[in-house]
Design brief:
Layout (H helix, E strand, L loop, with lengths): L1 H18 L3 H39 L1 H16 L7 H15 L3 H18 L8 H11 L7 H9 L9 H23 L3
Organism: Clostridium folliculivorans
Pfam families: Gate
InterPro entries: Gate_dom
Amino acid sequence: MINYIWFFMLLLGIAVGIFTGNGELISKAIVDSTASTTDLLLGLLGVMCFWCGTMKVAEKSGLTNVLANLLKPILRLLFKDAAKDEKTLGSIVMNLTANMLGLSNAATPFGIKAMEEMDKLNPKKSIASNDMALFLVINAACVQFVPSTVISIRAAAGSSNPGAIIIPTLIATGCAAIMGVTCCKILQKYF
């Protein structure tokens, strides 16, 4: 549906531009925007390669395992059923650890696996369990120690200090995670 909306808006904008005699400006804007988009993507590619390499070093050095071991006791308190199954808890820990370090591509398979494992523990297959809902909330509001994507975009856009976003992101994602977990735990009592 959203594709139709975007297409309609684009078509309407071009039609209005042509009927008002601004067709030349529209052509110039299209060419200029494609050039600036290409520049942004090339700049973003280099920075993303750097951060992906840095995160791969963190993974190979064992930093992700250290973070995972720190998370396990906390997650055992939060997840009622998933904490009883080591395989499920392991998938949850690896997903959250990868997200915290900005490895979103690596986090996705672990997130899918965690949901599959929690579904096996779920007695009502058609309804998400409390642990599944809590996992989605924590995953969506995941604390970011290294927001590599945002840093990359800021660097590609010419920011003088692209890393300045680290502390505000840590605060914002930390508050979001705390509020999300709190709301989930409160709502679990009623639903």
